[in-house]
Amino acid sequence: MAPKYKLAWWSVAAVLVVLLGGGVWLNKDAGEDRVTTSKLVVGASVFPVADMVKQVGGDLIEVVLVVPPGFSPHAYSLLPSQVAELQSAAVIFSIGQGFDDGVVRPVSDSAGIEIVTLDNGIELRKLGDGFDNYEEGDEAGFGEIDPHYWLDVKNARVMVRVIAEELARIDAGQADKYMENAARYEQRLDELEDELQQQATKLDQPAILTLHDGWGYFARAYGLRVVDTYEPVEGKQPTVEDLRRIKTTIDEYGVKKFYTEPQKSSTAATRFMREEFGLEIGILDPVGGGEGAKSYEELMKKNIEAISK
Question: What is the pLDDT along the chain (309 residues), one digit of tens a residue?
């Protein structure tokens, strides 16, 4: 069974204050009308998790997304209305490994909800694995493990099974339905994996340069190699020595493109790589939820297509 975090009793009163002032919300976007539901309410930390949960739960559940698309879980602050939305949730599904802990644990502490992480059964990768420039650090709140494991469809399959088993445990009367939904979704994920692998065989440039070390699972799954990163540790700016090494790497591997992320496409890193090193700029999206990535399947297709361009 996946790891769970139990709640502190002393902060439940904080939720009551919120509820008295705002009522129960089950919306995913601020400003949506209040609704009530008899469905099983479950939380999901970030968009890829929410989509997987919805595919398994179908019309039996109401999924409440904790971190809206376009926001980073490292910097996002929960709104009081979101705490109210989540107070009736049976569980919150999360990535863990320092990726979303900082945003889901306060909800857990205030509302008495279990957190179920989805990494059980997944071969986890160490941050910095394969990089000569990696520095030990915890600037982004991560430990030793790279938390971006959902960026490999084979891992997503494992996550879906954990979700199905947990929903079946919570709502035993509908266990068969959750397992049936999971099996259908797993078949779609198998088809997605086949499609991505076919596209990966056509890639002309397996060596890629990314903003930070968040694409190791994706690279390992689809025959790519992240040869270097702009940030030696996520959130840490490179030194002059780092930039010299990056330039050497670009020349050695013939790198033509630098891959940043949607929320960071106009940063100093992007401008520097384009103006000083003459690289084209590509976008790899780790989380999705926006245009062209309205499902986990679309997200993964969008990323392999970004490499193919």
Answer: 444 433 333 333 344 333 333 323 343 443 344 345 689 999 999 999 999 999 999 999 999 999 999 888 988 888 888 888 898 999 999 999 999 999 999 888 878 899 999 999 999 999 877 655 545 554 455 568 999 999 999 999 999 999 999 999 999 999 999 999 999 999 999 999 999 999 999 988 899 999 999 999 999 999 999 999 999 888 889 999 999 999 999 999 999 999 999 977 668 899 999 999 999 999 999 999 998 999 999 999 999 999 988
In 3D space, the residue among 285, 153, 270 whose CA is nearest the CA of residue 215 turns out to be 285
**In the numeric block, which tokens belong to residue 189?**
């994920």
Q: How far is CA 229 from CA 8, 143, 205, 235, 295, in A?
A: 39, 18, 16, 12, 27
DSSP-derived secondary structure letter, 213: S
Coil, helix or strand at residue 260: strand
Residue 75 to residues 116, 140, 165, 283: CA-CA distances in angstroms?
21, 10, 31, 20
Could you tell me if residue 112 is left (phi over 0), alpha (psi between -120 and 50 degrees) or otherwise beta? left
Domains detected in the chain? 4-194 (3.40.50.1980), 199-308 (3.40.50.1980)
DSSP string across 263-295: GGTTSHHHHHHHHTS--EEEE--SS--STT-SS
Identity at 143, one-letter amino acid code: G
Q: How many residues are present in the chain?
A: 309
The whole model's pTM is what?
A: 0.85
Cβ atoms 227, 209 nearer than 8 A: yes
